[in-house]
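In line with agreed milestones, the collection of sequences with tokenised folds has grown. A representative record is reproduced below.
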Amino acid sequence: QVQLVESGGGLVQAGGSLSLSCAASGSIFSINDMGWYRQAPGKQRELVALITNFGSANYADSVKGRVAISRDIAKNTVYLQMNSLKPEDTAVYYCNAEVFTRGSYRMCWGQGTLVTVSS
């Protein structure tokens, strides 16, 4: 079994910064892509940022220039540094990882962490 545990969400004022982290644990042989998604009230879940196991990163247009994703492969951990936050960044942020476990790849999700940006 694989678990992804996020931390670092909370309340921040517009213009502020927040850092999220997500650690994967369990029966992990390897991890390919890791990413962050978010879901705002009444909206569909959307990709925020994705990072490959080679360190190549992609970002949603809405966060480019304000967000940085990174990972520590040895620790099976992915990070999301968010700066210049806006009220529209308010959402539940979910960690995602493509994990090779018990002979096959699985898409694994964390439980989510709430980020609230006040105006």
